[in-house]
Amino acid sequence: MCPTTSEPARISVELKRALEFYHGSVEDLIRELIRVLGVNETDRRALEIVLLEDEKSTTPGRLAERLGLTAAGVTIMLNRLEKQGYIVRSLHPTDRRRVIVMATDLAAHRVREIVVPMIVESYKMLLSYYNTAELEIIADFLTRAGELQQIHRQRLREVHPYSKP
Q1: Which of 87, 100, 138, 140 has the least CB density, counted as fewest CB within 10 Å?
Q2: How far is it, in rounded angstroms, from Cα 78 to Cα 93?
Q3: Helix, coil or strand: residue 78
Q4: In a 10 Å sphere around its CB, with 0-12 CB exposed, 13-18 middle and 19+ buried, how is residue 26 labelled?
């Protein structure tokens, strides 16, 4: 006869499975978005950052910091995105020494055309399954989980890469 599993342990196992399923599904979805947009993962993430900024613009330095890239790596990435018509670079209106990166209408249109219907569908579905109090708990959980991921990312940035065999 198997010993009974405690409720917190059972929930912990369910939560682990659910998070693994969710992360895998998101990675699969992102892979398809990358394929449709014709970009790589770093370029997609850069577009996401630019499109989600309040002013719909950012700087190469902020992109480098958020993506963990060097200045040269960001320049190469921005060259690719500019060639595809997804971003434009211009001089800052008040500080001509700084460069501003903005998403183009093409990028905004394509992302809006593909992603917005999925977001709307997701919200409708979640709102039909959960009440306000449950949604507040879910939002709190996701916020805390995201904050934890940022802490983990920062820790990893401080780790030297393994040497090649």
Answers
A1: 140
A2: 20
A3: helix
A4: exposed
- Report how far residue 40's alpha carbon sits from residue 34's, in angstroms, rounded to the nearest whole number: 6
The predicted pLDDT at position 2 comes to 55
Strands (DSSP E) along 4-104, which ranges? 57-58, 87-91, 99-103
Q: Could you give the 3-state DSSP secondary structure of residue 72?
A: helix
- The amino acid at residue 87 is I
Report pLDDT for 96: 80
The upper half-sphere exposure of residue 49, i.e. CA atoms within 13 Å in the direction of its Cβ, equals 18
pLDDT tens for each residue of 14-29: 999 999 999 999 999 9
Sorted by sequence, the CB contacts under 8 Å of residue 119 that are 6+ apart come out as: none
Instruction: Give the tokens for residue 103.
Output: 């998403």
The 3-state DSSP class for residue 69 equals: coil
pLDDT tens string 65-76 = 999 899 999 999
What is the CATH architecture assignment of 16-158?
Answer: Orthogonal Bundle (1.10)
Asked if residue 49 lies in contact with residue 103, where contact means CB atoms within 8 angstroms, the answer is no
State which amino acid sits at residue 46.
A
Strands 87-91 and 57-58: unpaired
